[in-house]
């Protein structure tokens, strides 16, 4: 599920969903200290392992992502790059 939240200076596409659907479109990760850092392949594998470990315990995991939009509020095409 994705929502478009428009503000005067632009907006955000906010997405939630299954990690295996959201993660491939991401290029960075928000860390616990609030810093945004690149998401390398090793980081992707670590996330996948954590999701699997929680699923084996019967826990459900949702991924969250966001992407800036231009000031026009028109979101970029889905096919255009990653979040």
Description:
This protein has 2 helices and 5 strands. Strands 1-2-5 form a 3-stranded antiparallel sheet. Strands 3-4 form a two-stranded antiparallel ribbon. The chain has helices at residues 19-22, 41-56, and strands spanning 2-7, 10-17, 28-30, 36-38, 63-69. By secondary structure, the protein is α+β, with helices and mostly antiparallel strands. Helices cover 24% and strands 33% of the residues.
Order the strands across the largest sheet as they lie in space.
1-2-5
Q: What's the total helix number?
A: 2
| Biggest sheet layout | 3 strands, antiparallel
| Mean pLDDT rating | 86
Number of strands: 5
Quickly count the domains.
1
Gap from first CA to last CA:
14 Å
Taking Cα atoms only, what radius of gyration do you get, to the nearest Å?
A: 14 Å
Q: What is the ordering of alpha helices and beta strands?
A: EEHEEHE
In terms of per-residue confidence, which ranges show pLDDT below 50 for 5 or more consecutive residues? none
Give the DSSP E fraction (strand runs of 2 or more residues).
25-35%
**Helicity range:** 10-25%
- Judged by helices, strands and strand pairing, the structural class is alpha+beta
The coarse silhouette is elongated
